[in-house]
Write a structure and sequence with these properties.
The complex is a heterodimer of chains A (145) and B (86). Chain A has 145 residues and is of the alpha+beta class. Chain A is 43% helix and 17% strand. Chain A is globular and about 45 Å long. Chain B has helices at residues 17-27, 42-54; strands spanning 6-9, 34-38, 58-60, 67-71, 83-84. The radius of gyration of chain B is 12 Å and the shape is globular. In chain B, strands 1-2-4-3-5 form a five-stranded mixed sheet, covered by helices on one side. The chains are: A alpha+beta (145), B alpha/beta (86). Chains A and B meet through helix 2 and helix 3 of A and helix 1 of B.
Chain lengths: 145, 86
Amino acid sequence: MLSEAQIQRFSRQILLREVGGVGQERLLVTPVRVTGQSAAFEVARRTLLAGGSPLSDVALLVIGEKGPHADVVIFGATVAAGCRACLAELTSTPSPQRPELAVMLGSLAALTAQRLVLGRGEAVVVARWADGRLETSHPKCPHSP
Amino acid sequence: MNPPDLSIDITQEVCPMTYVRVKLALERLVSGQTLEVVMSGDEPWRNVPRSVVEDGHEVLRGAPPGRLLVRKGPSSAPGRAGTYVE
């Protein structure tokens, strides 16, 4: 049950059709792990915290990055660790490091993670820059059945 | 008319908390149950009925003056547009 302070703080998020009070309660108790260190991941980290998600090193839902650039890979709880490593290798295309792109990428990562917490969307989401455009995809690990 | 399953008073609230209170109250009900909302002022009367319908619920006719009567729509269909019942 949301407290009055939580209702006031997250009121605009509660208004969203996909969230509501039940969804906000789930966001508040489902930890998310953000492993990246780049600017995009700082944006993702702050966006998730502002939305009420607790950040934890032991969370099942992970936002990670590959290499020195800002590709974003978001894994849901159902993706095995072996598949995560495999998929990360598949998504190693370098991305530009412009601040405005980091904000967009980080925001997208946070929103995608929230959707996964709420049981919506694919278990694996990859976001990257390709030919000057932000693209998302849902690759499957070639080794999984 | 049967009494509502739940009644809330949002006369002291301002936007966006008016609909936040209604939305949270509707989440406490099951599909088909009714919520009475005591409202005052132009803003809630403009926005709350519209938001209720957009969220897939029904605005019922026959509520006393100053009150909105809502029937909760199917919980399993978020985003499904609801109806005004004439």
